[in-house]
Structure formats: C-alpha cells, structure tokens
Amino acid sequence: MGTILPERPARRRPGVLRVTRPAGKVVASSGEPYGEPMAEGSSRSWQRDHPWAFVYDRISGDPRLGALLWRIGVGSGIDVLHRAAGHELARLDPGDTVLDIPCGGGVALRDLTDGHGLRYLAADISPTMLERTRAEARRLGLAGIETVEMDVGHLPLDDGAVQLVLAFTSLHCFPDPRAAVREIARVLAPGGRLALSTIVTDAAWPYRGVWPVGRAAGVLGPGCSRAELRAWATEAGLVDLDLRAAGGLTYVTATRA
C-alpha cells in the first residue's frame, strides 16, 4: 500500500463494549445467543453457507494454490490484504477493540501477533464461517478471539465502541452497502480506523463480468461505484479517505472524524 499515515488524533475509549440490540448472536465460548440476525438478499445466501463461501475460504486460506488462484481471479495478490490488515493492527494499543466483519474463515487472523492484547470481535452472518474462524484461531494458537454472529446493516454495538473495523472483500456482498458503511462508521470511536476492500461497479472492465454472474448466483448485492463509496463515507462522518485499486479489488482506508 505504501501510504504514510498521519498521527492518530486523541480518541475517546469507551469503558464498556456492550451488545445493545437483539440483532446479533454472541457465539464465543459458552455465551447464550441474543437471537439470529434477519438476513436479506445476498446476505441470506452467505448465512446459508452458499458453496462459494467454501470456495472463498479454501482459496483465501491456502498459501500456495489458493494464493495463485486468488491472484488469477482478483488480479492482485492476497498479500495486499495481509499488508493492509497488518498495518492497521500494528497501529492499535493494548485493550483496543477490533471488529472484523465479515471475518469469513478468519483470513485476517493471520496478521495478529501472539499475545496481541486486543479485544478481537470476528463477526459474520454465517454460523459456518464463524466455526471456520474458530478453527483457524485454534490452528494459529490465538487466544481472545470472540466469534459473533452479526448483520453488518444492524450492528448490535454501542456508538463508538471499536477502534478498528476490518471489512475485507465486503461491500459487494452486502444487500445494502450504504447502510453497512453507515453502521461501520457509527460503531467506530473518534479517530478509529476503517480498512476494507471491495469490488466496485466501475472496476476495470475485465472484472465487471462478476456482477451479472454474482447477482444471478445470489452472492452479490447491488455494489457501488468509487464515487458512491466516497459520498457514503463522507456522509457517515469518515475522513482521510483513501481508495486504491489492486486488480479487481479496491482497497479503502478511512478515519472516523
């Protein structure tokens, strides 16, 4: 990515992270569920573990063949994702809270260090993906990973509850990407950071063919253009917006005002 980022402004650190709405289900350790999110549109396909969810998990988790297939399909290496995640995670202080949504099979967990000292909420609308994330956390020997079933359009978290949101390969999968951006910005603390990647509707022409295929398969939402994404982020209170194309994906970072 190669961006020199400014110093972080002073942040309000919430004393307690609370689940405030019945839309999410905490499934980490032995917690009782709060109730399943009501999935709509493309989210319903992911919640039901569409076959593409298994394919994505296998490709993103395989450092050899999967990494090659990722580069062929996306037009850039998965190392771009890991550099983006690692860079943002390294900026955090012990005790900060991370929301990783959709966490998929735990791809960003590979960028955490042992003894990271963070509160890490790995959230997804798919119970099967959350089970894969728990398995990945065990494989990596990572403690302190909380898996939470959430709908990104209705996050059951307090305003300003987290310091970092990771949302890789995300917005194109959501039925209402504008609502997702709004909710992500809401739960970010002032000075908190967002790092995401998505396929935009005005991506380079070789990658635009994914839209009719993905919509027909039920795994893609309406998506957004780069201009729409900028406008939504601005109206949600995000600043220092940076969009960079990497093959078919656009990587985005922003700060909560």
Summarize this structure as a short list of keywords or feature phrases:
globular; eight-stranded mixed beta sheet; disordered N terminus; 8 helices
Descriptive notes:
The protein is of the alpha/beta class and 257 residues long. Helices cover 32% and strands 20% of the residues. The protein has helices spanning 42-47, 51-61, 65-74, 79-90, 127-140, 177-187, 210-217, 226-235, and strands spanning 25-26, 97-100, 119-124, 145-149, 162-167, 188-198, 238-246, 249-256. Strands 1-4-3-2-5-6-8-7 form an eight-stranded mixed beta sheet, with helices on both faces. α2 packs across α3. The model is unreliable at 1-35 (pLDDT under 50).
Oligomer: single chain
Terminal CA distance reads: 22 Å
Q: Over the alpha carbons, how many angstroms does the gyration radius reach?
A: 17 Å
Structural category is alpha/beta
Helix content: 25-40%
Q: State the total count of DSSP E strands.
A: 8
Helices and strands, with pairings:
Blueprint: E1 25-26, H1 42-47, H2 51-61, H3 65-74, H4 79-90, E2 97-100, E3 119-124, H5 127-140, E4 145-149, E5 162-167, H6 177-187, E6 188-198, H7 210-217, H8 226-235, E7 238-246, E8 249-256
Parallel strand pairs: 2-3, 2-5, 3-4, 5-6
Antiparallel strand pairs: 1-4, 6-8, 7-8
Helix pairs in contact: 2-3, 6-8
